[in-house]
Specification:
2 helices, single chain, SH3 type barrels, 6-stranded antiparallel sheet, alpha+beta
Length: 78
């Protein structure tokens, strides 16, 4: 198992959220979107300039800016 920030994940790579390091309003907003430890995710795709990133989780697609994805640690298979 390897631990990365969500921003470092490749397209179509799957993982499980290990931690959300953002605090305050940003951390609350991230967790309110369903991005909490233990949630399985898949990187669905990236915009042409690699920002934002599209994430598939719990049956829906969510997009995040890279600066938000930096605060989310994910465990992935090697």
């Amino acid at each position: 198992m390897l631990k990365l920030s969500m921003r470092q994940m490749k397209e179509n790579q799957r993982g499980v959220i290990a931690a959300v390091r953002a605090g305050g309003e940003l951390g609350k907003r991230i967790r309110d979107m369903g991005l909490v430890p233990g949630t399985e995710i898949k990187i669905q795709g990236r915009a042409p300039l690699y920002d934002p990133v599209a994430i598939r989780l719990m049956g829906f697609t969510l997009t995040l800016r890279n600066n938000e994805a930096d605060y989310i640690d994910v465990t992935v298979e090697d």
